[in-house]
Na(+)/H(+) antiporter NhaA
Amino acid sequence: MRISVNPLRGQQFPAVLLLVAAGLGLLLANLPTHDPIAAALDVHLAVPGASLDLSLAHWVSDGLLAVFFFVVAIELRHELTHGELDSPRKALQPAIAATGGVLVPIAIYLLIAGDGATASGWPIPTATDIAFALGVLAMFGRGLPSTVRVFLLALAILDDIIGIVFIAVLFAHDVQWVLLAAAVVAVAVFWVLSRWLGATGHTGIAVLMVLVGVLCWGLVAASGIHATIAGVMLGLVMAPTPAGRSRHALEPTVNGAILPLFAFVAAFVVIPAVSPTQLSPAFWAIVVALPIGKLVGIGLFGWLAMRIRPRGTAPALVLPDILAAGALGGIGFTVSLLLANLAFASDDGIRDQAILGVLVGSLLSLLFSGVVVSARARHYRRIAAASS
């Protein structure tokens, strides 16, 4: 009997879908289709009886993307409790590499665009798109040792944590503490219900959890904290068994609809009709910081981490494999696009050029990492063939 596998649960197809959606958004933004699509994305939809009145584009980035962060948080919790980061010894090496993968891109960005209105964009090149990076690894890395994937996975998860902290801390505005406290209470109720659901499996509890989750999202959005943080909080506190089932159920929707839709909306920017010398420093800073900053930062700090690793930890990666992980780390995409929107929310011109920088920088990282990963995979396949 042939078993069919949903491609939306894999790594390669969702990565391709993301790239196509972003390319389509960029293309349609620069054709006569721009005005009607832009008008549609600017249509406001309000929640009756609430203070939430968001454009369609913001419902995608603030609402649907919260579901993505919910799934990410479930995976983060699993890795921190039962996975690749469940002990300080396991986390030490990728944590040091991740630190380099954050500090070096920030330094490069500030060196190029650290003056004036563009300085606030320094968090943008710090992110790694875990789904995209693992998709490229799956496409080109046949034959690589599993230690490379484990290292990349841990590295990208730590990057996600850093990105979540940036979103929660740096882009809060006029925080309404009473509403935020009410959201925390909703999270506590969600936590209790999730354990009740895990013990009983009652469908009615699951429905109630959805309602509490939506209420929590609304409270966080109204409090001045970015609404995606609600998804993070709910995913982190959910009981393991229902969390695993929720992640499995939501994965095809997140990969097949939510992320491509966000990529389309985020990439829907007009390419400025100017010479390269007239582009914003933010554009150039991101284009350099993503592929080069991540490669240098992860490569250098990852090599140092392997040199000082404690006895009994996983086998050391050789420098070329660390550089392959560093090249993959430059694929910022999803979280970098969100950070670009948040960092320059008050300046549409710089924001659009920063988004273009994310797309170009991530594409350069994708192409370079494909070459590096393919070369390393061929190297290991040759070794395997010679030893067989």
Remarks:
- The chain has a mean pLDDT of 88.
